[in-house]
Amino acid sequence: MNPFIIEASILVRDDMLFGPVDFLAACHLSSTHWIYSTNAVKTAMPILTILEFPDTRLRTIAKPVAAVDERIRQLVDDMFETMYAAPGIGLAATQVNVHERVIVIDVSDDKSEPLVFINPELEPLTDELEEMQEGCLSVPGFYENVVRPERVRVKALDRNGEPFDRVLEGLLAVCIQHECDHLNGKLFVDYLSNLKRDRIRKKLEKIHRAQANG
Q: Would you call 179 a catalytic residue per the annotation?
């Protein structure tokens, strides 16, 4: 069994703990389009509400981002704040009820490698598959094994709107595929049998009713 778990649409290692998030200010490094700086003055950013299955808004297919402007950069910052607070290491805009093709990921132990993928396009590079136990903040408390290609190419725009092309393997490959599913209105429970998916849906609906009733 692979020791990594996709928790909250987010790949989380089962021995990984996160503290409060630092403010993430974008910077463009010479050799990459991925990395943020955490050295800026901290400013308040909202923690966004994460939608939970079976909320039908999670089935919305996200639209391409027309322009990477200040609104999108603010969304990216807010998504990182929300992701780290969850805690987790990946989040798609669909999960916070913004239906545009934006993903944030950071699989590092110390929040030092934030990655931004705007309008991502995926291409599997191998027939070899990898099985990981996945869960999702949008499907809290449930975990099932999912099989995906272990190596993919992703083409996307960074936080500054600059295009990049990278090959991802292992944990990052599984994570980006999981998050891209969200942009296409798909959840990890869709890989399960109808029986398992319905059981999860009924349990979460019961929890949501109890929460609504206080």
A: yes
